[in-house]
Amino acid sequence: MATRVFMAAGKEPSMRAIAQEAGVGIATLYRHFPTRESLVDAVYQDQVERLTAGARDLLAEVSPATAMRRWMDLFGDWIATRNGMLDTLLAMIDAGEIAHARTRTELLTALTALLDAGRAAGDLRADVTAEDVAAALIGVFTVAPRPASEARAARLLDLLMDGLRPAR
């Protein structure tokens, strides 16, 4: 529930709004998450796990190119959720409460797995790095933030996928 609230929020939602969306009282929310930071940490870690597990799961289910495109949507969800908790998240990173470098490594590893599988299948270009794709994704979601610009983001992601395919 909190993930959905953070994703839809233009600015950081109140703990009361999160509790209301979850259908619980504010005291119940605070019993589980005594601080905003503890809630942000739980949501952030859950989203990172969804991205890393998502790459593995998608590769087991669909072709590497399809997995890459679907993973891009998961990345967009992560960015949208992160934006809804950005002030708290940045403060936590500055305080060393969240290991930003570790998260970056985990996400680049997931992207590398997708790219490697795509290269092996002949679906994705050999000269593209995980860092290239990550930078492109950040650019897409900067100019087409979700959920407000969902259609534009989808078009841009499709264009990015076209650019990731090897020349025929």
From TrEMBL:
Signal peptide: none
An annotated Gene Ontology molecular function: DNA-binding transcription factor activity
UniProtKB keywords: DNA-binding, Transcription, Transcription regulation
Keyword Transcription: yes
Residue ranges of DNA binding: 14-33
TM helices/strands, residue ranges: none
The keyword Secreted belongs to this UniProt entry's keyword annotation: no
Residue span(s) of domain HTH tetR-type: 1-51
InterPro entries named among the record's database cross-references: Homeodomain-like_sf (IPR009057), HTH-type_TetR-like_transc_reg (IPR050109), HTH_TetR (IPR001647), Tet_transcr_reg_TetR-rel_C_sf (IPR036271), TetR_SbtR-like_C (IPR049445)
Identification of the protein by name: TetR family transcriptional regulator
Species name: Streptomyces gancidicus BKS 13-15
